[in-house]
Amino acid sequence: MNAMSSRKFIMFGLAPALLIYGLFVFVPVVWSAYYGFFNWSGFGDKQYIGLANYAEIIQDSTFWRSLKNNIIFVLAAVFGQVPIALALAVILHKNTWMQRFLRSAIFLPMVMSTVVIGMVWQYIYHPQIGILNFLLDAIGLSGWKLNWLSDAGIAVYSLIPPLIWSFVGLYLIIFSSALQNIPGEIHDAAELDGAIGWRRLAYISLPIIWTTVQVAIILCISGSLKSFDLVYIMTRGGPAHATELLATYMYNSTFTSYRYGYGSAISTMIVLISLLLIGTSQWLTSRKSRSS
Amino acid sequence: MNQTATAGSHRQASGISILLGRGKHIIFWTILMVYGIFTLYPFFWLIVSAFKSNEDFYSHPFGLPAQWNVANFSQAWETAKLDTAFANSLIVSIGSLVLTLFIGALASFILARFQFRLKGAVFAFFVVGMLIPIHSTLVPLFILMKQISLLNTYWALILPYTAFALPTAIFVLSAYLMSFPREIEEASFIDGTGLWGLFFRIILPMSLPALSTVTILSFLHAWNDFSFALVFISKTSLKTLPLSIANFSDGYQTDYGLTLAAMVLSVLPTIILYLVFQEQVMKGMTAGAVKG
Description:
Shape of chain A: globular
Order of helices and strands of chain A: HEEHHHHHHHHHHHHH
Radius of gyration of chain B: 24 Å
CATH class of the largest domain in chain B: Mainly Alpha
Number of domains of chain B: 2
CATH superfamily of the largest domain in chain B: MetI-like
CATH superfamily of the domain at 77-228 in chain A: MetI-like
Largest interface: A-B, 99 and 101 residues
Order of helices and strands of chain B: HHHHHHHHHHHHHHH
CATH topology of the largest domain in chain B: MetI-like fold
Oligomer: heterodimer
Radius of gyration of chain A: 24 Å
Strand content of chain A: under 5%
CATH class of the domain at 77-228 in chain A: Mainly Alpha
Distance between the termini of chain A: 52 Å
Structural class of chain B: mainly alpha
Number of strands of chain B: 0
Largest sheet of chain B: none
Helix content of chain A: over 70%
């Protein structure tokens, strides 16, 4: 193969991928940083206002509440999804039809549209026709009935079960295959040394799959930052911004309040915050694995 | 494959009986039953309620309908204009899938099998894309789409879907291509096959397993996406399934049977595909997630 033609092939072959990816993933990130310096309603002239949008963000209580809700989601994913998925992976280790059926069922929400998932859970929580309140009535706990999604104090926590329900299957399968990849000899050796049951899980299995757990935690963090659809469908960020996430707040600022500059500044903050969170989690989990 | 299976069953025989042997058995089963019901009930409720009339919906919230209203489905199909929505979803999903597969495979082929300056930089450029939260680009992408007059076209969805699928596609495909032996190229050059011939006749067919992983990830993402469709599409005739269903439920909020029937119809294709290709879907999505 002569060098000229393979050079041409390299350039020609990489061009479409670089172009589409650059234009629709990379350019927007750079542009949102740029638009963040302007006061702009989306129509007409942009007015350069320097760091004013960012200064406003820092003092904006709704922004901080959105960030807090995002962090609640991340924590629920890391301390809810991951342990539940690990427990299920340990319990559902056999290949009987029952266990295979349950694994598939738990994974099923992963292939469904979040719109439908959000709507189903909206019905479950509905104050008048929701099956959750019907259920509480039926078992004599009518006093526990709540306005699950319209009570500002609890709405954000009501979003956690659907969140876990939708994504736990992914982590279950990740952990299941990691556990299955542990060679049988290691377990035999552990057994000879007297490590059985919980002790084997804690001292042998978990340390071996710890890197998988690390990956899962990073996935949880980046995944939780992506929960725009579920929140938008179920609450639109309300009531009174109680369930606002950074992404829904960005959406509402831009397309409901027509503040494109401010919305762009929030986009930039989302990129920075998610990089910061992923970096921190990587640092934390790698430190933990070194010390153990 | 066989090796891991035998190792797994060997481990089960020796270890699990001990792990489950004690009273933990009961605890495990209780957890499993509770989680099983939590997982399965929403699906059961969704499907069963789709057959109910409004009166049934109130009077038998948990159980089976007094009368199975099959007409809900045909009526939902008509009223929600699901035929248009299905067609739109198919066009954007298949369009972005074909683009992703072709330009992703081409770029991966070059990144995996050629040596050139800036190769590391190009690869890193694509990998960084996996860290960018997709929703942070909604506002700047909307502005971009408006400037290049792509709002309310299929391209407004096909191009961003492709762009966001590329990083994972390139990651999965180039990892797979790197494992091929060097002789493949040499043999094909002796045969006089050019670079394009090599790509189409040898590389593409050989990377089918990796291509199917990319297909699953990319198709499901495009098929289920809500946020891009919400922001870039406002014309009813171009709305994809998730967006149509969300709008339909806003309009027909009190006709429960009808809304639920539309929801069931919209998730049926992915659920059927999932039931048929279960193992591949679970493997593909976890591989994509872990590598992404």
